[in-house]
Design brief:
The chain has helices spanning about 15-35, 50-60, 70-80, 100-115, 145-160, 175, 180-190, 195, 200-210, 215-230, 245-255, 290-300, 305-315, 320-330, 335-350, 355-370, 385, 395-405, 410-420, and strands at about 65, 85-90, 120-125, 170, 235-240, 260-265, 380, 395, 420-425, 425-430, 435, 440-445, 450-455. By secondary structure, it is an alpha/beta fold.
């Protein structure tokens, strides 16, 4: 059964078959008429690229598609009928600014746009009142409606730095969730069991640990799934950590008589530390509204290994071109530094323009190549016992990097040392231990573009 986008269907358990059938016939006609005339094909000619060419772009950077065969079938149907697929991705406005981690999904939405499909940027202003429990071991602190509305406005301003505003449908899930009502909520809740909800890793972990699970948190996957019903989506995008919620949409669509959506999941993008998911709360994010110089500098600070993931998920370069570039770096034909500078310029230019990116590149080079004196740097006092090596006057460099705040963890410090990204008193260091002539010792420690003066005593 089809439903007009934006008009939430009544729960099937409260409708008679005759009413459902009548609505299906009526809405299917209005649904087709709701598309612009240029999307309705004439003489059997298709405006869409061949399916294999579409899949080549859509599968780039995708971690999992459920199912690829279904996506192929839907794309073939789209070519035959001229009807673009309805592709949605939801974003809860829980913070005022978007970062590069958010843009992974937006870029994939743009790929669908470039192929001629209808993209829906869904602002979860109602689901934000619950707070997504994904990856959480405690209940999220609730936001007020005022905070959510304010954040939502900033999202609208930022999203069109990636998406084409003329080809994007912006929707709010309050359009249907706020109108669902008590009876509708009961009917929706009746479609899943508690045991199904406890299959979710976050809920099961908290349940076994006897940690609180608020009842409203259990409603989040249902609410997100119901968005797919209300929008009659063909495809939903989300991160791999959203799999439970995305699959809920498929199940609910089946219950409401709709063809279940295809789920396309993208990998989680690690932040500057290369370990944890990019997040402003973790201090490892790159905001899309940050000045060009800051964005460029932060991109230059990521590890060489993480650089390749950024190339795949944050640029439109073809996978074959990225693979060729990686082969050249491995063969020594191309220096990793130059590859990373190209990445930083590419991403920065996408948000600030070519001129700003070139300026940031030049300023970064001057800053990086300039040797600071120890007097210019922030001084950090460190107890020798905290960084001591096995021999007298030896210092363990990974511990020193963590103690100065230049590295978030010992693992990151070791990785940076292996990449020869660490200098002590102007000299590159490749070992985990350094020796000093006497204590106390004052050392200029540099990691990437950041440097500190460490006073070890």
């Amino acid at each position: 059964m089809l439903y007009t986008p934006g008009q939430p269907p009544h729960c099937a358990t409260f409708s008679t078959f005759s009413r459902m059938k009548a609505r299906e016939n009526l809405v299917e006609q209005s649904f087709l008429l709701s598309y612009p005339r240029e999307f309705i094909l004439k003489n059997g000619m298709s405006k869409f690229l061949p399916v294999d060419e579409q899949l080549d772009l859509l599968q780039k950077g995708a971690a999992e598609i459920i199912r690829v065969a279904d996506l192929r079938e839907r794309l073939e149907e789209s070519r035959k009928t001229g009807r673009p697929l309805r592709v949605k991705a939801g974003f809860d406005p829980t913070a005022p600014d978007l970062h590069l981690g958010h843009t992974v999904l937006m870029r994939k939405l743009r790929h669908f746009q470039q192929l001629g499909h209808m993209v829906i940027f869904l602002i979860g202003d109602s689901t934000a009142l619950i707070g997504d429990p994904t990856g959480r071991n405690v209940t999220r602190k609730p936001l007020t409606r005022e905070e959510i509305d304010k954040n939502a406005e900033t999202y609208k301003q930022q999203v069109f730095r990636i998406l084409d505003s003329e080809k994007t449908e912006v929707r709010y899930n309050s359009e249907w969730l706020d109108k669902l009502g008590y009876v509708g909520l009961i009917g929706l809740s009746a479609k899943v069991t508690l045991s199904q909800m406890l299959d979710r890793k976050e809920f099961l972990t908290r349940f076994r640990a006897e940690q609180d699970i608020s009842l409203h948190e259990l409603l989040y996957p249902l609410a997100q799934g119901y968005d797919s019903v209300a929008l009659n989506s063909d495809v939903e995008l989300g991160g791999t950590d959203q799999k439970f919620n995305l699959l809920m949409g498929r199940e609910l669509q089946r219950d409401y008589g709709q063809k279940p959506q295809i789920v396309l999941m993208t990998p989680i993008l690690e932040g500057l530390d290369g370990v944890q998911k990019m997040s402003k709360s973790l201090g490892n994010a790159i905001g899309i509204n940050e000045p060009a110089s800051e964005m460029y500098g932060k991109l230059m600070s990521i590890s060489d290994e993480l650089m390749w993931k950024y190339w795949v998920l944050l640029t439109d370069l073809k996978q074959s071109e990225i693979d060729a570039m990686r082969t050249d770096v491995a063969a020594g034909k191309l220096h990793p530094m130059e590859t990373k500078k190209k990445l930083a310029r590419t991403i920065t230019a996408g948000f600030h323009g070519e001129a700003a990116a070139e300026s940031a590149d030049e300023n970064w080079a001057k800053m990086f190549q300039q040797k600071e004196t120890a007097e210019d740097l922030e001084e950090v006092a460190i107890a020798y016992v905290d960084v001591a090596g096995s021999e007298p006057n030896q210092i363990r460099l990974p511990k020193l990097l963590v103690a100065t705040g230049l590295a978030a963890s010992g693992a990151e410090a070791n990785r940076k040392i292996a990449e020869k990204a660490v200098k002590v008193d102007g000299e590159a260091v490749s070992g985990a231990v350094i020796s000093v002539g006497a204590l106390p010792a004052r050392l200029t420690v540099r990691l990437g573009k950041r440097a500190k003066a460490a006073v070890v005593s």
